[in-house]
Amino acid sequence: MSPTAAPHTTQTPHAGGPLAGVKVLELGTLIAGPFAARLLGEFGAEVIKIEDPKGGDPLRKWRKLYPEAGGTSLWWAVQARNKKSVTVNLKADEGKEIVRRLAKEADIVIENFRPGLLEKLELGYDVLSADNPGLVMVRLSGYGQSGPYRDRPGFGAIAEAMGGLRHITGYPDLPPPRIGISIGDSIAALHGVIGALMALHHRQVNGGKGQVVDVALYEAVFNMMESVVPEYGVYGMVRERTGASLPGIVPSNTYPCRDGSIVIGGNSDPIFKRLMSAIGRDDLAHDPALAHNDGRVPRTQEIDDAIAAWLSTRTIDDALAVLNAADVPAGRIYSVADMFADPQYVARQMIQTFKWQDGRDIALPAVTPKLSMTPGDTRWLGPALGEHTDEVLQSLGYDADHIARLHAQQIV
Fold it and tell me: Which residues form a coiled coil (predicted)?
């Protein structure tokens, strides 16, 4: 499916994408596993998504639906784009056989069930890799495939708490808030994709076999925690919530203007000097004690107060004009409405328009990252439940009578 405004590229893109020829079998639901498969599909992999015949992936009914009464999630258009939906009853023996046959042809299997479920279904890695030694299986779960917590249910929100993100987010006098998206699931999905591509490289370049990529959601979040571990290990320091500022990196904060707030990152040494000069504080710009970050940290409040005083009489647009001219990183806090109107978003075609099933236009985020020779693409939107079942079964050698019987017996 082509957007109404095709993405610009200076090179002739490879029609199949950089992952053309890679076959992915997705056994997951909701966010982490499907997001990982989505990323692979956006760059050319063939993604076959297995769904329960009775309702499919619950994400089909999450958040805003279109049409609002009984429709399909608008999120589904993004999360399942470029995927083939195949309905299979995993509790039926013939359903399991379909999955085994698909896995035999796959390069990657992605699943995010609770550990042990696939083994109970006789679809664990030991079974699937017996017929396909090169198979890479990405397993995303709350706590990983081992350890005393492996059998606990674990969602992204719990991982954000256990991984340390919630503890350092928000203001010290308020309970830790959540980030407004499912960031724990998304971070885990990115780790899953990275692991899958590394495992494929090992198989194809180093002559290795397939392997399991074990991603625990809490460990993916923990991996993003920067310096908290050595700080605690060496000094016993527990980083706490500090509101909008970035602790130990000065100045980096959110500051109020007359008509709203902006974010300023003036924390590199040369940028700090330019920022102070731009706001009329040459005394701070040329203070030898503030030349480096370790000297600025003890005087964080003084520096923040100086910036806030300068901004207090200015609008966002006026302040950004001065800061941009001084080459200081700064920006307004965008809503999605701001994104639709912003010239940078428009120039890079980050929001593209497609046709929904009934012909209505639907805006979707463009594929990221941008590759110059083999860019990703949205070939079709999230499919209807079981839309590709017959097509995929035919490709496995099932004849029309057999497929009809599988439907009649509610196996597919």
Answer: none
77 contact partners, CB below 8 Å, separation of at least 6 = 354, 356, 362, 364, 381, 382
Residue where a domain stops, chosen among 335, 366, 384:
335
**At residue 251, does pLDDT exceed 70?**
yes
Question: Do residues 125 and 161 share a domain?
Answer: yes
* pLDDT at residue 208, rounded to an integer: 87
Is residue 185 annotated as a catalytic residue, yes or no?
yes
The pLDDT, as a whole number, for residue 1 is: 54
Model confidence at 254: pLDDT above 50: yes
Q: Between the ranges 13-17, 177-181, 225-229, where is the mean pLDDT highest?
A: 225-229
Same domain, residue pair 212 and 287: no
Residues 101 and 177 in one domain: yes
Segment 265-315, tens digit of pLDDT? 999 999 999 999 999 999 999 999 999 999 999 999 999 999 999 999 999
At 332-341, the pLDDT tens digits run 999 999 999 9
